[in-house]
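Quick one - inputs below.
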Amino acid sequence: MPMPRPRRRARSACLLAFAALPVLAGACGSNVPFDAAPLRLADTGLFADAAARTISKDALPFEPQYPLWTDGAQKSRWITLPRGTSIDASDADHWVFPAGTRLWKQFTFAAGERPEGASKAAVETRFMMLRADGTWLYATYVRTPAGDDVLAPPDGVRDYCATADGKHHDVPGHGDCRLCHEGTRMPVLGFSALQLSPDRDPLAPNAAAPRAGAVDLPALVARGLLRNLDRAHLQSPPRIAARTPAERAALGYLHGNCSNCHNGDGPLHRLGLRFDHPLAATAPPALASTVGVAGSFTRGAATQRVVPGAPACSTLFLRVSAMDPLTQMPPFGRHLVDRNAVALLEQWIRTDLPAATATSEVDQPICKKDK
Amino acid sequence: MITLTKVLLIAATAVIGGATASYALQPAGAATNPVERGRYLVATSGCNDCHTPWHLGAKGPEPDMSRLLSGHPANVEMPAAPAGSPEWPTRASATMTAWAGPWGTSFTANLTPDKATGLGAWTKDEFLGALRTGRHQGRGRQILPPMPWPVYGQMTDADLESIFAYLQTIPPIANKVPEPRLPQ
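Output:
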């Protein structure tokens, strides 16, 4: 029996009803923040020509080196700042964005059936904008058969489209947006010194090559869009200090996929589990908070977050590998297992960590799967 | 002849009596003190039915108030739940703190302000988030049946904050509730 579902299953009438909502005419110029989400994506300022879906020149594409995995969705991302403004990087780990900052992330699911009323290609675009009062506006747009990208219902759309293995993708509700984006001091995720470092990790799972015109750290500084960044971060671009390439990629994956909740200053900080990556840190907090550390979650013989040499005894590995709602991490936003990440984490825990920490087999607990 | 002393005594009695009657007649739910309001809401919303372990008292099964709202006792190890059936899909333990159903086996949470095992380290926002979203700490795994969070999630912020305020005043009890179990 499936778990109880807090949101209603998608209905074609739902999408069609939202598609039929009156258009908010002349909602915004690119410099004018608004308080409520426009009913159409076209009115958020993303397009120069909405009919042709030509992206505005003000919308700068970017590609984080450690992207969040969402059941295999292909993603495109853009940011705009109000003209004449810039991001303050005085605190290199917590950039301050100007009011009116807008970000979009477009999800495309290449395969699978579509619900009646949805477009042939399942496309979802998430939008966030910093209001003048310092709060963030979140909205999600789904594409209709007519080709309009219309505002999704506040509770999201359950089972919006099929993905793989009989699973479906859910369009998030507003509450879900806040859960992910407001679990840390900086609600903008995937747009930071580490994520935009030109010293990109070649082993980062699911990373796409930056598209033409994509901005990275030096480009933002050169354009005058990022000020007060410590010059040292340009001379020596941010990079995770790891002992092996696999460890670097593993810690990067955990940063990109888990640090929005598990960090040093958000609501869950007291769990003592950290995947944030302060640039001044001499060692990644992820190592100190996982390797040989007991967590509150246990499963049989697995009581520590990471046990060098023993993935099956490592609760971190079990949770990333799981697909049941009691165990899986992240707890929402995915219905599939990221096999690339699982393979990487397994290599890191099974092979790289014992070599790096000189762990003897005697120190390891007995885990059947690791025998 | 009535003396001044008697007048004063009668007046004082009337005032005290009136005040007492007024207090007695005032619905507890209208208490303006958040802790008192929370106490009323907890008492009338069935929280003790599942979060306080039941035992066999003099009058039969009843919540063991010496373990007020401390959740499933860690020292009560539950065997695997008996198989359910379409007619009886849900099973409950004698303590009323362990529940088995199609979702697996869930154990009711420790709501006392114990910092390590209860709500002592929780913030008000986390508590409200949990009841609004049905997620542990407002952002984790799903809160499992039979917890009726969709009902309590409709309470006002003021009421939920009052419940949280009251729960922070009850005796802390160190009791680490087991993790939920997957369906068999």
